[in-house]
Structure prediction request, 136 residues.
Amino acid sequence: MRHLGIDYGTKKVGLALSDEAGIMGFPHAVVSNTGALIDTVARLIAEKDVQVVVMGESRTLEGGLNPVAEDARAFGEALSARTGVPVQYESEVYTSAAARRLPQKQPKSRAPRSRAPIDASAAALILTSYLSRHHE
Prediction:
């Protein structure tokens, strides 16, 4: 079963796809967070036959939701309503910092190159974290 990981940001959104067995996430692309975002992600879900979406849940170090979290939740709910695919949430604490330490391969990107691979790698880390706890 294929999963889609999302690292939601106010300007850019990192996307990662799992292997077909649903064991590990891999960076896929970075897209700009514009009015077309839901169309872009819904198209990817259909093209790749994604069965579950895993969104990073953005929290403060104290455990509360940060300002991006509300927008991410609203996007996740709208995406699920549009596609019929369930959206799960996974902590994204430190994923961007961890992604910065990884060797970077340039994914397909519609965002500036400077951070593009980090956003997709962070999405892959979020997805892999979720999959490692839910794989049967």
